[in-house]
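If your schedule permits, I should be very grateful for your opinion on a structural question. Kindly check, if you would, that the fold set down in the C-alpha cells agrees with what the sequence suggests. Thank you for your consideration; the sequence and its C-alpha cells are set out here:
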Amino acid sequence: QVQLVESGGDLVQPGGSLRLSCIASGFAFSSYLMSWYRQAPGNERELVARIGRSGSTTNYADSMKGRLTISRDNAKNTVYLQMNSLKPEDTAVYYCKADSLGVWGQGTLVTVSS
C-alpha cells in the first residue's frame, strides 16, 4: 500500500523555524519527484516546493523562496521541508505528494502565532 506520513507541524512564534518530514512507503521512492503543498482555511491547496529524484533540482514558490529548503534522503525514503522566518500567513496544513502517483499524505498542521 502506497503511504505518505507527514510530521513536524507545531505552534511556533513569528520568526521561528520548523522542519517537516514525510516518510514514504509502498513504492520506489527514489524514482519519483516529491512535492510539498499547503492549504490554509478558505484557500486552495498550493504548491510550495518540489524536488527531483536525486535531490539535485529544487523549485520553490515565489511567496516563500528564500525561506524554504526542500531536501530528501532516498536511503530513508524521506523528504524534508525546512522553514525559516515563519509568518502568521504561513499558517496552514502542509502536505507532501508523490506527484506522478497522485498520492497525498494526511497533512501536518503548522500554526504561526504569538
About this structure: The mean pLDDT is 96. The two ends are 40 Å apart (CA to CA).
